[in-house]
Design a protein that fits this description.
Number of strands: 6
Distance between the termini: 28 Å
Largest sheet: 6 strands, mixed
Number of domains: 1
Strand order of the largest sheet: 3-2-4-1-5-6
Helix content: 25-40%
Number of helices: 7
């Protein structure tokens, strides 16, 4: 079984360089074009039987574009949402510096070790993401491939779990907007077949 891990396309929050978290930001026009490019790529050779998505608008809209091109309807799951960043949600870096200077100062040194008022908590976040993905896998373990559209933080937490890394530490990967990563299940352990691939965006001159 293959799990296609997709990060949502560019949102208005991405374009404004805001810390999104649970802020419900829709796609930009550019983001919709990115999602269409990825949808076109996924129409051939992937054998996708279902599409799941975070319920936040930027992931849901990306999933709707992809699922629509495959004749499917996305299944939404709140557990796939991005990390809840507490009081810094929706702020730019400049706004964090102005409103929470102590957090900004310590965050610049090591963002992974700075407590933020109202945040979700790393362990709880990873647990809910893994719970959602375990349910997806259980439903489709006899199928060829499932696509899941979520967020960079969501996939970083899940991938760290799969390969046994401590998610409380900075991870050695990034997930770009509208990127595709593929995990193959079966055998002794999960395998990463593709990571943060955006070749479908090259036609638009993007990385």
């Amino acid at each position: 079984m293959r799990i296609l891990l997709i990060r949502h396309a560019e949102s208005e929050g991405n374009a404004a360089q805001r810390i999104q978290g649970w802020n419900d930001e829709p796609l930009t026009d550019r983001g919709r074009e990115q999602a269409k490019a990825l949808a076109k790529r996924l129409q051939n050779g992937y054998g996708i039987c279902a599409v799941y998505a975070s319920s936040l608008s930027r992931a849901r809209q990306t999933a709707e574009i992809i699922a629509g091109s495959l004749g499917l309807t996305p299944v939404l799951d709140d557990r796939l949402r991005e990390y809840d960043c507490g009081v810094v949600t929706g702020l730019t870096w400049e706004e964090v510096q102005a409103q929470y200077p102590d957090i900004a100062r310590r965050w610049a040194e090591d963002s992974w070790r700075v407590p933020i008022p109202g945040e979700e908590g790393i362990e709880l976040f990873q647990q809910r993401v893994v719970s959602a993905m375990d349910d997806v896998i259980a439903r489709h373990k006899e199928e060829d491939a499932v696509a899941v559209v979520a967020h960079g933080g969501t996939w970083s937490a899940y991938l760290a779990y799969l390969v046994g890394l401590d998610y409380r530490q900075r991870q050695p990967w990034v997930f770009d907007n509208a990127s595709l990563s593929i995990i193959i299940l079966g055998g002794i352990r999960p395998r990463i077949a593709l990571l943060n691939d955006t070749c479908h965006l090259n036609a638009d001159g993007e990385k």
